[in-house]
Amino acid sequence: RNLAETMKKVRENMSHIKHKILVMSGKGGVGKSTVAVNLAVALADEGFKTGLIDIDLHGPNVAKMVGLNKKPVVVEDQIIPQELLPNLKVVSLASFVEEDTPVIWRGPMKTSAIYQFLGDVAWGELDFLIIDAPPGTGDEPLTILQTVPDIRPLVVTTPQEVSVLDVGRALKFVESMKKKLLGIVENMSYMVCPHCGGKIELFGKGGGEKLAKEFSATLLGQIPFDPKVVSNSDRGETIITHMRGSIVEKSFRDLVKKI
Ligand code: ADP
Q1: What is the model's pTM?
Q2: Pocket of ligand 1 (CB under 6 A)
Q3: Which residues bind ATP (predicted)?
């Protein structure tokens, strides 16, 4: 297939999806995948037809976080996403690569893999597509932003100064691509003390707010830190499905209302 045909297929495929959201971050470890996964599950839980796609070849966390276990099925050029919950279909680019194999792909290879991926997954009609991109401003987010014109970037940060600096770079990148930012999500904003119920600001304060002001962006939400998130996500249990009633879950419900 040549490039023009591939792009036509991508456009056709994306035209059946109402809202496309690219989840980005300035650097790794701020909870980008956690936010992408739980946002998608929360949207599906609210009744929206949602797709979740992981294009991170180097650190494929989404599949693990949602307990994706089957190899994707490919039928006549079409990749069939796994239906994980009612309203939620998931596919991970990493599933096409052998587990434990370090991926050494050069830029152009990554780009063409992403084009194919965007064009070939049989989503059907969707309300939302959540795309988890690798951290930073490399080939993958660049390709997606260029290929899907009406995509809205959502940027995840922690309140910490260094994280905020990195995110500033990602936000400038989004601006330079002339994309309309959906907003900023601050993760690990605080922890609720199990003894007194007070707020503990583990990683400083105000990073998300500061960025939102600087870039005239919306601070969409502040997600608290909860140690259970770590062990749950290692078992493929999401915040939305396995931490019902918690403050972290509530913060995702609030986030969905703002999107
Ligand atoms: P990234 O995609 O930015 O690299 P991850 O989503 O993989 O980050 O999160 C990094 C680590 O932090 C994981 O172990 C994850 O479980 C944990 N984590 C993310 N968000 C939270 C949170 N709100 N509370 C507790 N742990 C979190």
Answers
A1: 0.95
A2: 25, 28-34, 61, 135, 187-188, 223, 225-226, 229-230, 233, 248
A3: 26-33
